[in-house]
Amino acid sequence: MRITWDQVFGWRLRRQYVSEPATGSVPDIVGRLCGVQAQVTSSAETAVALRRHRPDPGALVRELAAGTLVKTWSMRGTLHALTPAAAAVFLPLIASARIWEKPAWQRNFGATPTEVVALTEAVSRHLADAVLTREELIDALSADSTFHRMGEQLRSGWGALLKPLAWQGALCHGPAQGNRATFTSPAHLIPDWPGLLEPDIAAPAAITAYLGAYGAATPESFDAWLTRASLRKTTVRRWFADLGDAMTEVEVEGRRAYIPTEHVDELAASTVKGSVYLLGAFDQYVLGPGTADTALLPAAHRSKVSRAAGWIAPLVLVDGRIAGTWELTDGDLTVSTFDNADIPAKPLDAAVARVAVALGLDALAVRTA
Description:
By secondary structure, the protein is an alpha+beta fold. The protein has 18 helices and 14 strands. The radius of gyration is 21 Å and the shape is globular.
């Protein structure tokens, strides 16, 4: 089946609730997106608000507090808000890469695989029925000399030593206490926590969900999104092959990729001409395919989107492609397009108005840098 990038982008915009905002719940949106990156809580809120028919400030944080979403280290080692069902299928695939057993990880973070096992068991005990701040958790671990030399890494805000525990379902973030993060177990936080599935059982649901939002995509792009390409290539390809007729191979302007078979007709009928949308920082629209995808983001302009310290800029989309970035300055929304390209004024004004509503503002004036 041969399709065009215009068809792919038109389909993605609908599937990700960009061109047709959702009337359903916040967990519905987060589930469709396979999680929302939540390193910066305000960006996660913006990602959801821009996709809701009626934005509701603070909606994502309320769902986290209610346990209908869980905040934990997941894809690529970054914090995400996930539905419990998504956590149950994505976390075991990430854990199956066993990154903490690789020599480079051990050199960087100073813990052996045996020590990670001991840490996982100890943290599981302490968090089984408790919510603890980072310092409280470290104090609880301090009684065991095994963990004394890990103190500096455990105190690090990057959470390198805690990520393998999150991937194995031993901990997740609990309700914040002011500016302090807390930790607990998913089973303690989430009503009817399903637990993590075995990787081979989880893979079909995980891959189908990813392709259902970010297809057409390859096994390599799935692994790059999930683990920064840390899984065995043969394993990922086997997972894709095991989907059989549930997946259809397509050719997108010379690139071979896959989509869920159930979406073939919808994708073939998609169009995208004349559309302009604005999305916030760290948005899944670009994180799903990755900033290295030149069909979505021209290589010459990648550094304008993927910036220093891992910052992902707010996006200007024209016909589904990333055509620039934007920022708020003194109550104005300033648009910077690649190569000073013009953007149709009427759809841009509508996109700016949508951002204002999502951010709870009366209006925003638009400027061009």
